[in-house]
Write a structure and sequence with these properties.
The protein is α/β, with parallel strands linked by helices. It is built from 13 helices and 11 strands. Helix 5 (131-147) links the parallel strand 2 and strand 3.
Length: 382
Amino acid sequence: HTTTALDDARANARRRIRTRAHLHVTPHVHAPSMMSSHATASHVSSAARTAARLLTRQHHRASGAAALRAPLSTTTTTRQRAVMTSASAKVIDGKSIAATVREEVRDKVAAMKAKTGKTPGLAVVLVGERKDSQTYVRSKKKACEEAGITSFGTDLPEDATEEEVLAVVAAYNADPNVHGILVQLPMPKHINEERVLGAIDYEKDVDGFHPLNIGRLSQRGREPLFVPCTPRGCIELLERTGIPISGKEAVVVGRSNVVGTPAALLLQRRDATVTIVHSRTPNPEEICRRADIVIAACGQMEMVKGSWLKPGCAVIDVGINAKDDPSKKLGYRLVGDVEYESAAEVAGYITPVPGGVGPMTIAILLQNCLEGAQRAYGCEDL
């Protein structure tokens, strides 16, 4: 009955408005705003004004009801528009936070040297001549030098045998001046990476990939000696930015052994409720929309859109991809696994690419190496 009465009232109002005020009222606009320059308020009868107000109120009620009936994706878009017009995400400056971590490491290395006369040592094994791997190794050696960490290195040719690589690893395992061993990946296809990584002494496994370290990470009440650098860097970014983790809902997009799985384990150890989205997940957008924290590490360029996100969430973008861009000198620019522009309009915090997670990886590598030396020299209280 209420619906019928409202329909009758709206019909009568339209007739009165057309007859007495020569106005064309749409449900989206208040009647006075549509008046011509010759039809002033004095020419509009009280009944017409009342009818116009009634139409506007009924339109607002109908809009609200429609929003309640709309599917999740529609209401989310509406909320995102509100965020877009009022705020944008705060950028988590990975370069600045990494610089702080590296300064802390440098200070502790100096304190260790003053107390024991010794410094941490990091050994890097490179097999082959991949240009990108050579660049990474050089950057790690430079970072060690800046932090006061002694750098060791062995470069093997592309055709080096697996046994030759294992012999190098064994020599560094036995060297008391080496506290961290890193084998640069990927290695040539004829070498079994799992076997080589498993041969590294877990007490020198600064990459955190040894089964004993990953196993301890996955169990409550156990502490790994080392945690993988990139996932630990993600957590450091959250914690040093003051973003709470305990009790929050977190989604990790990607389940690799290098980032996704250990990142999920680290979040769980900090009492987050964690969901992993992967290539067989049928509804990734819906799952991500629930998350207070999203870590994107799927290796798919700009996969996570702003429409996937809960307004105000924290987004950590681990991905790095080359996107064609003719305006750039090299013809491309670097982007992450998150579509930055749309995500930044919805999220509360977000890491840029580049300049977000990347700088943290090397900073945490140095920190892991320092912690290995502290255990070896009995000066963990530094």
